[in-house]
Structure to design on (579 residues):
């Protein structure tokens, strides 16, 4: 247990000292504020909570940025330590490989949490103070989007470990991480859209599509958050799909957690076979 | 003697390359053994097999009675890899206490380890600012926490200046004095400065020598070089008597096998005034090392 704590503490320390936390939270804050400014113009006179409107944009922002930040945080975890020789040192001690990975996971999730809470928290506080018609509903929406963003981020941190443990060079791991991000948040959605266009009324759209959304943790995150905000009447554009689901959209949030468990198990199994 | 490291007939292949061939090497409690060999001779592979990172394809290994890589074996062993880059953002103290926690060693050991490697003053600076020698000492500090029974040090003295190297060996003496078995690898014999109890030499994965330095010197049976200073009148007859090479017009240099040494010396002394001085040089450590690590197939010219 103390070994896991020591590993997590070291990751947090490094994340704070190399200004990682600061940089990531500034990026999140800047994008969040940009969206808040752009988003406030059309929604000026709606009845919806001003903060809730911003939160709707934040959940779209999270789909892109949070997995990217998470992968950038984790791709180096194993391959980088093999490169630098520190993994050999760590694995020569009595600590088990599962403990090493879990310690890093705890540390990285906390680093990511600091960045997300700071970035979105400050953005949310500014909107809350400056916006009209803001209330406790909006705060609840903000807390929900922060919480689910952390779940999404933790999932992609774990997926990053799979990439990092599978290769020996940091550069290869980085390329793999970028490929995973591109596939999960861009190409996957494009492919789904293509499928919908090709058969807008067929088996694909009616039966397969909702489950394919569920299969991708980033899409599942979007479905969950849009559905939750929909209830408050602040949903925008494309997100309306949540209503036509064959399952309760609030169940979609299970997807990131399932992927998190799979990725952690897989990366631990791979790490056990690594010859440092 | 209480054997801490016991390896018997260990083999390891990488595809078609035999990295280790039937290596048998024991290190007892309190013993310091140097493992020598060229790059690629199998030193690091042997370490990685002992640590359990690589599986041996043949033979047996035990560390204080435990299987390599098992939790109990890892509790007893500590390791310093050839090259390690610690996170630049952390201080020396943070790094040593990190490994101390992984080894369940007390905080007191962190301070004493930092003092032993002369880093107590620099302990609160970030190790990104450390010099190469300081980083090497930091690695050593990490290796001595946790009171290991077996220390594996891969080229620990590379990059150290002569004074640091001296201090390194006195530190190793200290650690071995408390019963730790030490196995350290090095490129050449001369770097060891006669500081280890035993020397083992690997050549292309085979253990070609394993003994004290004196034993290695005598079993290598390298000739002793004798240089006789004569004068310009007698040098010709001295050269005829002993053979060898004439140097500077007045001296003769020749090789002589170890058992013939005394016979040759008495022959020289019988020459009386024809000889004004005699120099005898035993083969240097580097020559002994070159003898054992020579590459028979290629004539050993590369060394």
């Amino acid at each position: 247990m103390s070994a896991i704590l020591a590993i997590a503490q070291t990751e947090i320390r490094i994340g704070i000292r190399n200004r990682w936390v600061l940089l990531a939270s500034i990026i999140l804050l800047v994008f969040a504020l940009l969206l808040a400014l752009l988003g406030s113009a059309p929604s000026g006179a709606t009845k919806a909570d001003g903060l809730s409107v911003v939160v709707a944009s934040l959940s779209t922002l999270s789909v892109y940025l949070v997995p990217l930040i998470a992968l950038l945080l984790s791709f180096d975890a194993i391959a980088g330590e093999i490169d630098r020789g520190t993994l050999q040192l760590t694995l020569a001690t009595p600590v088990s490989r599962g403990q090493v990975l879990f310690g890093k996971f705890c540390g990285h999730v906390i680093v990511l949490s600091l960045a997300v809470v700071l970035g979105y928290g400050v953005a949310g506080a500014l909107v809350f103070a400056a916006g009209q018609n803001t209330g406790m509903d909006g705060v609840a929406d903000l807390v929900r989007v922060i919480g689910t963003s952390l779940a999404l981020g933790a999932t992609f941190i774990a997926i990053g470990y799979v990439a990092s443990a599978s290769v020996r060079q940091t550069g290869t791991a980085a390329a793999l991480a970028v490929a995973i991000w591109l596939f999960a948040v861009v190409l996957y959605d494009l492919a789904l859209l293509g499928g919908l266009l090709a058969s807008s009324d067929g088996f694909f759209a009616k039966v397969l599509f909702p489950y394919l959304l569920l299969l991708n943790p980033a899409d599942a995150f979007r479905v969950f958050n849009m559905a939750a905000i929909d209830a408050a009447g602040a949903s925008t554009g494309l997100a309306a799909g949540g209503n036509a689901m064959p399952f309760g959209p609030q169940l979609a949030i299970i997807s990131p957690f399932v992927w998190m468990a799979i990725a952690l198990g897989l990366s631990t199994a791979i790490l056990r076979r690594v010859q440092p | 003697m209480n054997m801490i490291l016991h390896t018997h007939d260990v083999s390891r292949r990488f595809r078609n390359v035999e990295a280790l061939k039937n290596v048998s090497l024991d290190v007892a409690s309190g013993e310091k053994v140097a493992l020598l060999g060229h790059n690629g001779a199998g030193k690091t592979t042997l370490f990685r097999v002992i640590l359990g990172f690589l599986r041996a394809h043949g033979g047996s290994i035990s560390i204080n009675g435990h299987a390599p890589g098992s939790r109990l074996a890892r509790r007893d062993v500590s390791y310093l890899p050839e090259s390690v880059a610690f996170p630049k953002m952390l201080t020396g103290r943070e790094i040593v206490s990190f490994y101390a926690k992984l080894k369940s060693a007390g905080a007191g050991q962190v301070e004493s380890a930092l003092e032993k490697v002369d880093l107590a003053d620099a302990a609160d600076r970030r190790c990104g600012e450390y010099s190469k020698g300081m980083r090497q000492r930091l690695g050593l500090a990490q290796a001595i926490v946790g009171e290991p029974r077996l220390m594996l040090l891969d080229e620990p003295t590379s990059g150290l200046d002569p004074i640091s190297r001296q201090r390194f060996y006195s530190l190793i003496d200290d650690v071995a004095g408390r019963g730790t078995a030490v196995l350290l690898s090095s490129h050449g014999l001369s770097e060891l400065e006669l500081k280890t109890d035993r020397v083992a030499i690997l050549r292309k994965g085979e253990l070609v020598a394993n003994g004290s330095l004196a034993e290695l010197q005598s079993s290598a049976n390298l000739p002793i070089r004798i240089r006789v200073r004569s004068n310009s009148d007698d040098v010709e007859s001295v050269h005829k008597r002993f053979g060898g090479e004439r140097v500077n017009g007045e001296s003769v240099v020749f090789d002589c096998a170890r058992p013939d040494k005394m016979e040759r010396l008495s022959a020289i002394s019988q020459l009386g005034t024809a000889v004004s001085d005699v120099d005898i040089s035993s083969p240097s450590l580097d020559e002994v090392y070159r003898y054992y690590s020579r590459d028979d197939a290629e004539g050993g010219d590369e060394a």
Observations:
- The radius of gyration of chain A is 20 Å.
- The first helix of chain A runs from residue 2 to 17.
- Residues 234-243 of chain A have pLDDT under 50 and may be disordered.
- The interface with chain B takes residues 2-3, 5-7, 10, 13-14, 17-18, 84-86, 88-96, 275-276 of chain A (CB under 8 Å).
